[in-house]
Amino acid sequence: MIRIAIVGEIGSGKSYISRIFGFPVFNADKEVLKIYSKNKKIFLKLRNSLPNFIKSYPLDKKELLNAIIKNNKNLKIISRIVHPLVRKRMNQFLKKNNKKKAIVLDIPLYFENKIFKEKDFVIYIYAKKIEIIKRLKLRKGFNLKIYKQLKKFQLTNEQKRKRSNFFVKNNFNKKALKKEVNMLKFKIFKNERNNSRYRNHRSKR
Question: Residue 65 and residue 92: Cα distance in Å, rounded?
């Protein structure tokens, strides 16, 4: 099973690109939302750790955001409680799909949480900052302060790019992106067949 990891800036289009590969996708953000809405055990842990903020079950995202805005150390508390379960679900996903030709990992903290493996094919998604902010502002509940705080917990974009095998420039053109992804799939499978690595290779339009 080939592991393909998609990394890049928040709002750069990672989730859309992950889906158009056509392989099973583990989307960490979606798993977190499921945990917030359905896992009472996690809710109780969060409420015990942040009793001044966490009141409602299912978890109210506004309460979590308010906790982070009031004190960015609360983000670390939330992460310590939630991330182990996300990793457990990722491992279940990998086990379930271990006979598939390939899977895609759409995980914002892929490097930071040490999920990276040497044989992974890592694709860095680049998009212009102005396009990213424009699209993020369209998201329900987008908060620029939270966005900036989340970025502090991530590697810089340059660090992610340097650790990736491929580079994709996202102009948010669906037709062009599908063509790009097909080219990447060809290169990845060819590379896998040849049992060699494209370290520091960049695919460009």
Answer: 28
Give Dmax over CA atoms of the chain in angstroms: 56
| Cα–Cα distance, 104 to 79 (Å, whole number) | 22
13-43 residue pLDDT tens: 999 999 999 999 999 999 999 999 999 999 9
Is there a contact between 8 and 132 (Cβ–Cβ < 8 Å)? no
Say what the pTM is: 0.90
Residues 149, 46: Cα–Cα separation, whole Å: 19
CA distance 118 to 3: 10
Q: What is the DSSP annotation of 39-64?
A: -HHHHHHHHHH-TTT---SSPPHHHH
In the prediction, which pLDDT does 39 show? Answer: 96
Place of tokens 């609360």: 74
Distance CA 14, CA 19 (A): 9
For residues 81 and 94, the answer to whether their CB atoms sit within 8 Å is no
> In this structure, how many other beta carbons lie within 10 angstroms of the beta carbon of residue 41?
10
Judging by beta carbons within 10 Å of its beta carbon (0-12, 13-18, 19+), is residue 47 exposed, middle or buried? middle
pLDDT tens digits for range 58-75: 998 889 989 998 998 999
| pLDDT tens per residue, range 188-197 | 998 887 765 4
- Tokens matching residue 195: 């049992």
CA distance 133 to 146: 13
Cα atoms in the Cβ-side hemisphere of radius 13 Å centred on 140: 2
